[in-house]
Model the fold of this input.
Amino acid sequence: MKNFVFATLMCFAAVSAKAQVITSDVVNHTYDVVTNQTNGKYVYNADYTGNDITTMYVYKVVTDSKDMIILTPYLKYNYTYATDGMLTSREVSRWMVEKDDWVRTSRFDYTLTNDSYSTAYSRFNYLSNSFDQPVEKMEYSLVPDENVNVVSYYQRNNPSSDFQLISKCMIEDTEFLFAQK
Done:
């Protein structure tokens, strides 16, 4: 039931967000939006290479007993792009106070082909010090010669098992959902 609810929400999010191929411009725009928010629980900072954000830092805003504002590290996102500016991966790290360092947690890999765009989610394996094979993926596919887009959500129990289709929904308003490079 949890998987179905998640998949349904992801499908709805894809439609309502007018999903598109994620590029460096999309990452930059997202950063601009979140940094312009005031009175939030989080503060953001970023490292750039040229015009592209390569690392985004998220800090929690905490007020101590003397009303002093303290920023504590929370999340770090490392972005990798293809030469055309398309996002190819986003690695997530969480700040670990005990280690006084960033610790990798997950990675999202993005792939664009002629008829589909996919996102795959992998967990970091601390024993092998590398990312496992993806355990979840979402595919946005354009059905040829039809004004239909299919959003499919797949999951597997462990990195060595086969993906199982959890949810599939068809969306007829593809002009907003599926973008070309």
